[in-house]
Amino acid sequence: MANKNDSENYHRFVDKVCIVTGGASGIGYATVDEFCKEGATVAIFDFNEENGKKAEEKLRAEGKHVTFFKAVFFGSKGLTATSEDFTMSFSTNVSGYALMVKAVYPYMKNAGGKSCSIVNISSISAHRPQPDRWTYSSTKGAIIMMTKCMALDLSKDGIRVNSVSPGWTWSPEVFKAAVDGGREKWDPVWGQFHMLRRCADCPEIARPILFLCSNDASFITSTDLSIDGGYIQMTNEGFGEQSSFAGSKY
């Protein structure tokens, strides 16, 4: 489980405006909440209007400064993916990122750039092949390279651009997949994919995102941060229960 957060003791984003896409639930909502705790004014973009309005209402009731805007959504497919599926996925998950950055760039530049930061959300799916992920994984891989290109081009204005690659996280979608037995049953199963032997809680992904957005990361750009509990570094031998190694007895 995640350690108790003390972000409310920090005020790194007072007088800052933050935009969080997919901010109505899961990692996105946790990121919105963490930004708000540190004094930010946050715009929530999400395809789910009902969840977006609920998030806006809940956070405003807590005295936080948020506004919801409806966005679009794409899915993930493998062998069944059509040309239209790929077009939709790349339009939303790659072009969408690029167009968002293009839209906010003039404001970041006018703000002086030096305290401005962009964090794109990639995935462990960009680093390891997974079944039925042709569309999703392709876009997530593209995001990492696009992030590096953005970082290079925006560096002249002092704007930093990084990405993060989360591992399995207890988001609403993962909870849906765990309907038979819930977290108690599935965390040990899916946790075996990670060195830390569990899936992440959403705030554990959100807080490193805030770090990259903050001046604490003022000399970090063009970097993909794996927030994955060691998932990407795991090998087929797992934790070694089924392995024996030459010289392992000495």
From TrEMBL:
This is Uncharacterized protein. Pfam families: adh_short, adh_short_C2. It comes from Didymodactylos carnosus. Belongs to the short-chain dehydrogenases/reductases (SDR) family. It comes from the Eukaryota. Signal peptide: none annotated. InterPro entries: NAD(P)-bd_dom_sf, Sc_DH/Rdtase_CS, SDR_fam. Keywords: Oxidoreductase. The keyword Oxidoreductase applies. GO terms for molecular function: oxidoreductase activity. SUPFAM superfamilies: NAD(P)-binding Rossmann-fold domains.
